[in-house]
Amino acid sequence: MEHQIFGIRAIIEAILAGKNIDKVFIQKEIKSDLMQELFKTMKSHNINFSYVPIEKLNKLTKQNHQGAVASISPVEFVDIETLVESTLEKKDNPLFLILDQLSDARNFGAIIRTAECTGVDGIIVQKQGAAPVNGDTVKTSAGAIYNIPICKVDHIKDAVFYLQGSGITTIAATEKTDNHLYDLDLKVPIAIIMGSEDKGVNPSVLKIADKKAKLPMYGVISSLNVSVACGAFLYEAIRQRFSTIND
User: Fold this and answer.
1) What is the value of pTM for the model shown?
2) 104-146, pLDDT tens digit by residue?
3) N or C: where does the chain have the smaller number of CB atoms within 10 Å of the terminal CB?
4) Do 17 and 103 lie in a common domain?
5) One domain for residues 193 and 89
6) 150 and 51 in one domain?
7) Total domain count for the chain?
8) Strands 95-99 and 190-194
């Protein structure tokens, strides 16, 4: 289900050939002229990459990887203009999901699964620093990843501005607010913003979001797993919309 390319020259050629590279894993502290060429190619094509220890690369492949392994996404990504415009043509109250720096592939897969079940019209993630779309993502999503559009953008803030300009209310999930989720009107066109596992929504994104909302918490532990919190937000939106349909 997951496809990989290993070897520096092979990855360079794959990028130049327009392959749908999701992420490149680079061995820490490895330097060579060819590696510099890879970095230049990744930068010019805006390819997501991260530094990892050699043990990670050896786990990804048993082949001679030369310090670089790339994963090819099992899905095609859509651009944000196409996603938003095509959705607005079909419905009056779309529901989008923005994942701000979510980094865990299994959390990503679980969120995709819930999003597909709740009728989310599209998921927007950032190109750099986002969770990889790999075998773990596909497996955890139970195949839902093939049924929901995913959009990669250069900057989450730009995506928020674009959605707002398209008449879509952006709602950031954060504990840094007095507003509870259940007090908001989620029947209108909305995009829910979920943050990273450790830091939440980026402060710069929080600043420009139309609204902020939190879930009531009564336990000693003051936070939920991001995929669980996302499920609570999405199902409250569905509850409100379902109630309207049946009124």
Assistant:
1) 0.83
2) 889 999 999 999 999 999 999 998 878 878 778 888 898 899 9
3) C
4) no
5) yes
6) no
7) 2
8) parallel
| Residue 194 near residue 99, CB atoms below 8 Å | yes
- Asked if 95 and 50 count as a contact pair (C-beta separation under 8 A), the reply is no
Give the Cα separation of 210 and 174 in Å (integer). Answer: 13
Show the tokens assigned to 12. 């360079």
What are the structure tokens assigned to 124, written together? Answer: 């927007």
Q: Describe the crossing of helices 33-44 and 8-16 by its angle, rounded to 10 degrees.
A: 20
66-80: average pLDDT? 88
CA 37 to CA 30: how far, in whole Å?
Answer: 13
Structure tokens that stand for 193 in this block:
């913003």
pLDDT in tens, 160-218: 999 999 999 999 999 989 999 999 999 999 999 999 888 899 999 999 999 999 998 88
Q: Point out which residues pair with 6 in neighbouring strands.
A: 69
Q: Would you give the end-to-end CA distance of the chain in angstroms?
A: 44
DSSP classification of residue 102 = -
User: Which residue in 102, 100, 110, 101 sits closest to 136, CA to CA?
Assistant: 110
Q: Which residue has the higher pLDDT, 103 or 172?
A: 172
Whether the Cβ atoms of residue 78 and residue 151 lie closer than 8 Å to each other: yes
